[in-house]
Sequence to fold (507 residues):
Amino acid sequence: MKYQRKHQRTSLLFLSILIFSLLLSSISIVGASAPIIGDDDYYEKKISIDSSDVFNWTVYKNSSTNYVVTVHAVGLEKWNQKITPDYFVLDETTPYTIVGLKVSIPSFPDKEKQNATIFFSFRPINQTNTFTITKEATVIVKGQGIIYDSNLILGQYENPFPAPLNTAIVTFVINILVWILIALVVYFFIKRILIRIAKKTETLLDDILIEIIRRPILFLIVLYGGVQSLFEMNINLGLRASIDQITQFIFFIVGIYMAYRIFDEILEEITIRKGGKTTMFGAVLRPVLRKIGLSVIIIGGFIFALSAIGIQVTALLAGAGVLGLVVAFAAQDTLSNFFSGIHLLLDRPFKIGDVIFLDSGEYCRVENVGMRSTKLYSILEHELIILPNNAVANQKIINIVKPDARILKKIEVGVAYGSDLKKVEKILYDTSKNHPNVVQEKGYEPRVRFTNFGESSLDFLVYVWIDEVMNQWQVLSDIRMAIDTKFRMEGITIPFPQRTVWLHKSK
Fold:
């Protein structure tokens, strides 16, 4: 029993010596060899909304001991903060380091003032014991829209009425009435002066634009005035921030509405100048551009609205970009046809009703140009051909009705050797010229050319201009029949292929 008590006393003695040694070691570290943190900055700063500032401290080694230092801060709830560097080493090569705390005020802070506590933790290299030094910093928000002088008219003028009419409620009502008056002045200025000026211009577009923005501007002025009047009542800062966020979001929604209305009216004006809603632009391209414009304005405006009220949209944009790449890869043929359709509508190599000649040798009349395909009517085969837009855009197409509906065609004629060539030339010329659908204008007369001494015939080409591309087949048939009739009357022979074979008989 005595031995156990003696053993316990010995253990307590050793434990006391160990604790005392550790305390002595810590005191010596914190005391004579402790690093120094220099207060070389102002540690109460006013920072504006959407701005930032930096608090700096210089940390000195101050002894032969080397330290590993970690830094972190607490406080500043919901405000962006960053410590640089938050981990470093103090040694012979780097005896001091400047530490900065960067504080950024968000668009809608819910506090006017916050305090931050910065913890500098030091651990001697090759040791496990640490000690901490703390510093304080204070941030005050400044800027319009957050800190207001209460009970002021328009934020500047004292309420001139005596008690009991000098209360915050009365000032709020006065502010509302003043802002309504300002809105009405602006509204009637637009209605009486700007509209009168716009009516003197040649285009109706400016009249329409003024009509579009008149009522939304009135609404925005009243909304802004109501919010500013409410802020003069010295309400809670967190409530102010929430109201400010909602107000900015409403401003963006109204802006999106006005942007789309203006875009739609400009598109309507372009459609009228292009010939109306029955043209390819009005019937096909305008609805597509309308949908694209609406999507871009709404999505873009919504993203800006979310960003303005402090919601991070970076991840959303990155996800949308990846999704767009996946969709584009999966639907590349469809997108190719879509953009080829837009190219055909904008470049307009042909319009509905034009006759075109394809690489395949088909004569087709254009029936419709859609966003995915083009519909063509095959004139000779009486068939409806549907081609993808990229197939149409990537092949050679001859628009036969451009620059006008006239078309130059040729007729090949062969006559027998020994025929009177002058008579043949005259018959070919007169027969072609006398057809009613052959162009009679100067410079467009039929041309007859003697082209070749063939194996069985003397070859001629007759070039004729036909007044309408759709008449070419009937006109060529009529001229050929007339030539044959005239040749028969004049005794001119159209030979068939023949070959004379001489046989030599040896004796």
